[in-house]
Amino acid sequence: YIFLFNKLSLQHQTNIMTLQVKHGNANCRTPQGEYYKNVLGTRCDIRCQKGYELHGPQQLICQSNKRWSGKVLCKQIRCPTLSMPTNGGFKCIDGAYFNSRCEYYCSPGYQLKGDRTVTCMDNKVWSGRPASCVVPCPSPEACTPSWSPQPPPPHPTSCPSPDVILKGPSPGSHFSEGDHKIQYTVYDRAENKGTCKFLVKVRVRRCGKLNAPENGYIKCTGDGDNYGVTCEFSCIGGYELQGSPARVCQYNLGWSGTEPTCTPMNINVAVRTAAALLDQFYEKRRLLIVSTPTAANFFYRLQLGMLQPEQCGLDLRHVTVIELVGVFPAQIGRIGVKLLPPALALQLRLLLRIPHYNFSVVVMDKHGMDKERYSFPPTPAQLFALIDTFPLRKEEMKLQAETGQSCT
């Protein structure tokens, strides 16, 4: 055990978490080729999977302040939204995302001009030329004037321009969803009259409303269920998304992908390293680590007494409590009802540089950054005020307000 202590203390000079990039990968190298890829001076080159683009620096460095030198994010490539051609439309396989293929079509009586199909490329540009729907040129014989029901008087040598009275929307008007009655009345100089009435029915192609998964959120563009709309799903902290993270309302009135669900996060305490344990919480949960040399410690008992009635507030803020009790080898760790092996609890203390013989509380954000430390029991109000200032928390509070999630 003495050998294990020395080895870990030499290799873990910081309390930073192993770097993980969602939809990407990090190729890390340490100054002296250490096994752990989160020691001081580690350099990681960031690359995103095909179909995703990097937001942030291409290289991150593990700094002396125990933090990575920046933040990175791999976002799915999206092309600009296609313009709907007048007197036509288009249907896409996967909205405006990378590799989606869209096919244009025209209403009866109109002809397609441009490329019929386009594809969203990795440079965020659509392949081909944008299409339009045009009226095909008629033959010259089709341009002779005709009158119905009565021809004009014989004395004019050519057809005069008729006077047109319009009732209803003018030509070129855009119609909202619903029924629209249109009437045109035409008079010529011979006082012949013609009336045309017709009904324009506008029906929006809709796939039906989607609901947020239990313990999750939904965010949709447009009306939420009309053709071309994209709905994105996410889960609250502590739950993992199973199924499609985004679904698109397609031309056939069906949603792309599969129905998503949010399943409880399964914490594996049988991992070999503390870094592997912390990696499971990356971008999912914040951590409140309570460490005490004995279970009888006054501060420890006071801290648990304050936290127990505030479980709703902790869950609302996606906080998992990890308890480290005792001194190695008579040391245990606990996450809820799951017990950590003594060696893993020891590694966690060494990795995060938590004192063995004093009460201590460590607050970590979803990116594994050490945000605050206390040598005394902080009140739930102090913890919640701190966590509510974290950048990701602001977006969470907005979503929770929209869905009515609260502890009141």
TrEMBL record:
Which Pfam families does this entry report, sorted A to Z? DUF4174, HYR, Sushi
- The intrachain disulfides are C106-C133, C235-C262
Domain Sushi residue range list = 26-76, 77-135, 205-264
Stretches that traverse the bilayer: none
Every HYR domain range = 119-204
Return one Gene Ontology term, BP aspect.
Answer: phagolysosome assembly
* Record has Disulfide bond as a keyword: yes
* Keywords assigned: Disulfide bond, Repeat, Signal, Sushi
- Domain of life here? Eukaryota
**Coiled-coil stretches, from where to where?**
none
Q: What is this protein called?
A: Sushi repeat containing protein X-linked
| Source organism per UniProt | Terrapene triunguis (Three-toed box turtle)
